[in-house]
Structure formats: C-alpha cells, structure tokens
Structures
1.
Amino acid sequence: MRSTLEQSRRLVLPELIGRAARSRPDRPAIVFGDEVRTHAELHDRAARFASLLAAGGVKAGDRVALLLHNRIEFVEALLACHRLAAVAVPINFRLAADEIEYILDDSEALALVCDMDPPGAEIGRVGRVGLVLEVGPGYEDAVASAPPWREVPEVAEDDVALMCYTSGTTGRPKGALLTHRNLVASTLSWIHEMRAGQDDVWLSGQPLFHIGGINGLLPFLVLGATVIITPSTRFDPEAMLRLIDAHGVTMCIFVPTQWATICAHDSASRIDPEQLRVAMWGASPAPVPTLRAMGRAFPRAAIVSAYGQTEMAGATTLLKGPDSTRKIGSVGRPMLGVEMRVVDDEVRDVPVGQVGEIVYRGPNVMAGYHERPEATREAFAGDWFHSGDLARFDEEGYLWLVDRKKDMIVSGGENVYPAEVERVLLDHPGVAEAAVIGAPHPRWVETPVAFVVLRERGDLGQDELIAHCREYLAGYKKPSAIIVVDELPRNAGGKVLKRRLRDTYSHQG
C-alpha cells in the first residue's frame, strides 16, 4: 500500500477534491433547489456512501452504474466511486429499458444507484448487478448511519475513473474508458482556459450523465468553488434566470436552444451586467441569431463555445471573446494540453483550408473502449486518436467543422446515432432496409428522419414504425418522420449515399 505522502503527490480526483474540502470546508459546493452541501459536507457524505458501496462488495476496479437525474446524490455517488478506486458508469435516464439493460450488462456493473420510476431495481436485476441503491428516504438513513470511509484510496493516475457510453457504427454503445489522468488533465486545462477561480459560481444546463456535465462540474469541486445543479427535465428559462440572479452565478452553459429561450425572456434584462462574466454554449451548432441575442442580452459576458467529445474527456477547443462573433461558425482553437491535427487517410497533415479528419494526442485521450480491442485499435491507428470528425483549419489556426462523426445527429443537444436507430427499425419484421439522416428542425436544430424499404407493400405505415422505435429507444432518438422508398441510393461499393437522401428530403420539404 502506498503511503499517504506518496498518494498525495498523484494527480487523482480524490486527492484534488479532498484538498478543496479541507481548505474551503464551509464554502457551498453544490446547490440544488433548497438543498445545499458545503465542501466539508459533500466530502463527508461521499465518504459515507463509499462505505455503503464497500459493504455491498464494491472494490477497486468494479463498475458502479449511476442512473440518476440531476441531483446532489449523483455528485456524492461519483465521488464515492473515486474514493474506492471504483469506476462510475453514468447512464442517460432517458434511455429505454432495453438500452439501459444493455449498458448494465456490457459494463459488467456490480452496483446500480438510481432514482427511476418505476423503481430502478426492476431494471437493475440484470447481468452482474447485485447491489441496487435507490435514492429516497432509505438512502438518506443509510448514508447518515454509515461510517465514513477512512482508508487512503489506492488510486493511480492511469486507473479508470469513468466509463461513458458512446455509440459507434455498429449501433451498439461502446464504453469509453476515462482515467484519472484524463479527467484531471481536462479539469486543469478548463480552469486555465476559462480563468476560473475559487469565488466563481457555475451553473450548467447540461445533464450530469453527459461528459459535458461532468467536465463542467469537476473544475469547481477542485477549486473549492460553487456549482448550481439545475433540474434535468422541463427546462424553464425564467427559473434559470432566477437562479443566475439569486446565487450570483458568474459562469454558465446551456445548449443553443436553451439560450434562445433565455435571451427572449423579459427577465434577462434584470440580470446585473457586471455579474455574469462567461456565457458558454455547446453540444450542437448555434444559429447566428442566437449568438447575436446572447450578445445583446448579456453584453458584458464573454460568449464562449465549447467543442469536444466523450473520448477526449470533454472539451478540446474553445471559441472565446471577440472571436465568438469575428469567427462565427468556427469551434475555435485547441485548449491547453490538447494536440490536434487535421489529416488525410494516411495520417498526413492536409494543407490549411483543406478538409481532413481531426486526430488527437495528449493526456486527455481515453485509455480505450471497454472490451472492444478492435474498435480501440482502429481508433488509435497511427498512434493518434481518430475522432471521425471532418474539419479544416483556417490561416489563423481556427477549426471549422465540416461534418459530424459517423453522420451523428445532434437533436436539442442530445447525440443521436443513425446506426442505432437503423438497428431498431431493421428489427421490425416489415422493414427490409433503413437509413437515418438528420433534418433541420426549428426548435431542436436537427431531428432524425428515416428512409425505409419495406419487405412487402401493404398497410405498414409511419405511425406503427415510430411506435416501434419509441418502445426500444429514448424519445429524442425516434424518427420524427419515416419516408418509404423503393430502394436506397448506394455507391459502387454498396454504401448508402446519405447525402443524396438529405437532398431528397430537402426537396420534399
């Protein structure tokens, strides 16, 4: 076992966050509604929850699934996992039961922490899950009575801290393995780039199960600053403005659709212009009118966009300050510690202005995909991590995205992978072929639209196929329209030409 001194030298989350709890114990760490946890209280409750997990058989390296809405208990459970050197596996609560069960089984989770209705225990009894802890009165009693976990955590920088699921071309999610080194590097880079400090107050409109939500949370826990957690359902722009005003929020992030409604609300004009110094957006492209509305509503705030991906432990580029209008459409320049290139198929740099694939190196890059050795080898071909995103650099070193990874659709800030929707459509006995594209949407920016070839001509219609998708997919993933065609356009190699489908849909619209 390492000595306490040896462990304190390592850049791991329990050490960094523990120092904040010791140095700023009485500073509010997390606020959610009427609930407040100081850094000392958060540290204590996480230690007690770690004891509960350990008593249930969880040990270093084991996976603990977190199926939770935005709430303080999510943060407590996350920190408890790190105290034990266990691996937290956040799960999107919007997923269908079949999708949740797949992740529980694939991750080999031994424990599940949940607040689902119906009870998570009904979902949790799959695979290796043997311990289910449901947040509620019983959870509070158990945490209060558990002794704090006092053992020095045997955590190494290259130990996996987080397993976040992201879909690929097969249509089944893959678990991206993020180490303590990855998350600490991303956290310290975020603090440096955003000039975040101990007196900042952060508010995020993102769900905590997203890497973006965690990427924004950790810097403020490390600093000993304050995080305001927002509800993860029923977005209310007036409520967000009240939170910004009441808690003296200095930095916040929302997706563009949320910013549009916030800026249009009458209460936006009541926010002290000297208070909010950073207004961030991410997760999906921001229309120019939305960016201009943010500038009018919060004229003293720096408008910042963040681009990144799960496998990179969060944000990799930022577009900041005057560049947010001067370079509208760009995703900015690489953050501290992120080595980025735009390359051809031979991993050779393409000339400035030409399109290639974004590849990465650096301490932020994930360790690999859980139990996916072939996918991991493919992702790291040529000793660089291949993002799958196509982009170009301009003469000033600003990055411009051209197309999204594997034709990914971003609908209202949520990632929708066409292959996943196509797999569900093809499970219907009446569907012979399916191809899903992203189509423009006035509210969600994009929405999934499916083209299908039926096995037989008949009465199978759009409503039945959408209902089928709703049964097996989260609501935001189901197609908003289904178009029946005689055949799908393909190239000589048999690959579906989705660009032609997009053209077909645009002409129909």
2.
Amino acid sequence: MGFFAPTNAGYSGIYGHANGQGLVRAYSSGWPAGLKIFGPSTLSPDLWTDGSTNYVEMWSGATSSFNQYATLDPGQRVDWTEYWYPINDTGGFNFANNQAALLLPGTESGAEVALAVSSRIAGELLLFSGNKEVARWPVDLGPGQSLRVSWDKGAESGEGLGLLLQSGGQVVARTGQVP
C-alpha cells in the first residue's frame, strides 16, 4: 500500500488499532505540501522489522508527490518545521498540533474522548455539547501516556460536540464546536 494525500489540515498521522500505537506529524497548515504513507504488505516483514511485525512509514516533502519536482535557485533556501511524536492507546485522533492529539468521536450514548501529548502537560480537558460545557477531566500527562474517558450524554442532546485542552489558562488544543 502506498498513497499520497493532501496536507492542508496542519497535521497528519497513522494509527494501528490492532496494537494501539500511532505517529502524529504536526506542521504549518498547507506547507509542506507532500504526504506519503507506505506499507510494503506484499514483501516479507523480515526485510523491514524484527519479529515479523508489520511495517508502515510516513514521508513529507516540499512537493505533493514523488512525480513532482521542486527547484532551488542558487542561494535560495526553503525550510520549515515539523513535529513528530508517538501516541499510544488513544484509539486514533481527529485533531493534532505540535502539543497534543485529540480524539472526539460521538457515540449513540455520548462520546469517547482521548488525548495524547508531545511533552508534559498539566491542565484540564473540557467537553462541550451544544456550546455548553458538559464534562471536565484533570490532565497530568507526559509523552507516551494517554487519557481515554467516556461521556454519557444522559438528557443532553450530544449534538455539536467540542473538546478543549487547556493548561495554565492557555488553550493547548481544540477540536469540534468549542465556544
């Protein structure tokens, strides 16, 4: 398997649901243009890994595919910053930045919420439904740790969900409908 994908969101990544491990890549929205995900499923895993485990890799670059070329004139420079970090036991993510990856899927009974961070963060994770705060969880996590919690909507509508991570009064990450 191999494919190129647009990268306008400012984050991308991969997540293996079978082993609960993933990789997040965060960067400036729209640049760099390239993202390729590759997994050599038709080749022996022994060529790539120890212990016959599956293998996948993620690439980034200045062009949106390997068939396009970027040219630098003499003295010209192109640079950018990317942040890559592992996540574990989150069930995936649907938003990420250089500090945190968030997962907020709505369920029939409420929501399943998950969080992983790239560096130590102490703060709070707030869940909103219909622009109203409906749940709050304390956060004290470091790299390699995750938080997974469930919210039962009860009498709430469960519509218009939003998730906000804050630390020291500052917004660290947010996704969905947050007032």
3.
Amino acid sequence: MRTRRWVCTYPAADNPAGLDLAPVPVSWSYSQADGYVQTQRRVRILRHADGVVLHDTGMQATASSTYTTPTLPSDVEVRVEVSIVTNAPGTPTVGPASRRLTSSYASPMAPEVTLEQGEGCIVVAIVNPAPTGSRPDVELNVIERREAGGDFAQIGTSPPDEPYLDYSVASRAQYDYRVIGVAP
C-alpha cells in the first residue's frame, strides 16, 4: 500500500476570517512515499448553498500546486474543489479536496470614529483606514444619528478623513452616531 499525503495548504481551514480578496490564491500539497507526483489538476468553484458551478478549469496538464480563482462573488459562501491526477499506476486520481470560502470585499473598510465636544456642536472625527485586499477606497462618509433607543437617520455626509460638525443636537439628550463609508 502506498502512503499518500494530500493537503490543502491555503486556506488552511474553511472560511478564514478577514478574507477580503476578490480573486483568492489556493494552494495544496501532494506527496507519496514512492515519489509519484501530480501531473494534472482541476479546480471547480461551486456556490455552497445550492451546488451551482460558478467556475471549472477542466483537467489541466500541470504540476503547479497553486491556483488563483477568478473574482469570487462578495459575501457569498463558495466551495473550492481541487482534484489532481498523479503519475502513480492504478489509482492516479486524488480528491477532490475542498475548502469553503466567503470573501467580503465589496464595501470599504469601516471608518474609525471618535466623538468630541466642540463649541456648540458634536465633532464626529472620522479616519478612513487604507483599504486592504480588494476593498475599495471611500468616496464619501454618511453620518447617521439617533436618540438613545430610536432609529438611525442620516444627518449629513463628509469627505474621507474629514470631521463632521453636528450643530443640531439638543442639550441633555443622548445620541448614538454611526458612520458608513461609501465606495465610488
């Protein structure tokens, strides 16, 4: 009996946190005690909820153990399946091995917000972090406010990294603020 080892090396687990890439690099390793190696691969991407095939490379002659997916749908769980063929006699097909991925890249990074008391106003200080992965830049920040326990309502907008001055607050009232970065 041959000893085979087939491992998906990236991602190392299903649905890794913080995955913000549109195309995702996938890698795997295969080793066998008798020295047989991968000669072909097939990568399929399926929507996990219903099994619909979104992408299929078909079998490709390659020893490469990496593949960069095409752009994945944002915030949709997919399953990436990799099957390989080796030069081992008898049982050359291995897999499929699979990983579930949910890439989230359509919205900008969440802004960092601090509130300060200004002269007759509340200063909503906003810092928009540089985007990571495939996330877009912020074009505009939408500022929302609610009285404690109420519903949020938009009160204004500001350019990236610019403060918003809220002059329409009542004294002794308690407010919650929310800032949402909007992409172009």
4.
Amino acid sequence: MTETNAITVSISGKAYLDRPGSCGQPNHMWDLRILDDDGNVMPPETPGLLQCRGVGLMKEYWNNHQATLDNIDNDGWLDTGDIARIDEEGYLYIMDRAKDLIIRGGENISCAEVESAVYDHPSVKEATSFGMKEERLGEEVAVAITPKDGETIEPAEFIAFVTGKLAKFKVPTRVFIWPGDLPRGATGKIPKRDVRDDIEEGKTDGVVELNLAAAKL
C-alpha cells in the first residue's frame, strides 16, 4: 500500500517454499492485527479485517482530513481494507478485499476463492466474481467468464467442476459468458463492480447468461 510505503511484510527462502500462500511476517518496524466486525482483536487463524501500524505509515491523506480519520485511528492503526488471517507463527495470509466480499445468507464469501476455483477450469481464460442482489439471501454468487479461444462452457459440467472445489454455498448461481476480454483498469485489474453494474444495467452487448436450471447446485 502507498499508505505504508509498501514495506510491511516480507517472505523468502524456505519460509516461502513452506508457505507459498503467505505474504510473510511483519518487518521489525511494523505491527499487524486482525479485527472482527465489532473491533475486537482476533486470535491466530481467524479471518477478519487487517490493520497495521508502524514507522513507515503516512501522516495523512493530502487535503482530505476526513479520509485520514476514517482510515487511521487515534493509536495509529491503519485500516487496510483487506480480509486476512495471521497464523500461529505470525505469517500473514491475504484472503480478499473487504469491499469485495459476497455476503450470501449471512455467510462471507471471498471473491478471490471463487475465482481461483473457476480459473482451474481448463476452458476459462479470464474470470471475475462478484455478488448480485438476491431477494431471499441478500446476495448470490455470480461470475463473468471469458472462455479460451475455441472453447465453450457447458453449464452442468462447469457447475460440477467448481462444486468439487468450493463449499456448496460458494458455488456460483449465475454465470455470464463475456464477449472478448474482460475490461481492465489502469492498474491492470478487472473492475468487478463495473462488470456487475454493466450486467445489471444491460450495458454489455453480447453477454450471455448460462442456463443453470438443469445443473445440480
């Protein structure tokens, strides 16, 4: 993060080989902690909101005092906006952005976890997952996919594939086939909320929603 001068944690050598999914341990100038929704500090291995504090932290947002108050508390802890966990040895694992979580029937679902399962499908070139409004559950899991050239996504086979990799409540219930490459922002990331909004507002020509009625969800 630019707010932390990008030096919060590190990992290398055998530690990385043993924990390839970890960002590493905090450098000696930094402290990390995980909070629940009520602001309580969580024990190891419990996912929650990641905060950090250290000498490299910025003083404030330029000409935006309110943003500083919203993101840095009186004790100098910065709200990173990331959902993460820290293991018993202090290794950090980033799970998702807090604003990207899908909340389905009270269950928090990581878009990154859904996307990882979808990307394992041999016919998928690009994918992005997001929540869409659903009357009974609040949100449902949706995914937009660009297939590889010459490949097609068969609804029943696709759902069976991801069901083998995800808990049932995390399996997408809406799947959209995107014409061409998915859009990307200035940093190269896929703007998932823009994709969702365009689909909901009917602004995308050529997008086809798979019929999952015959698939066992």
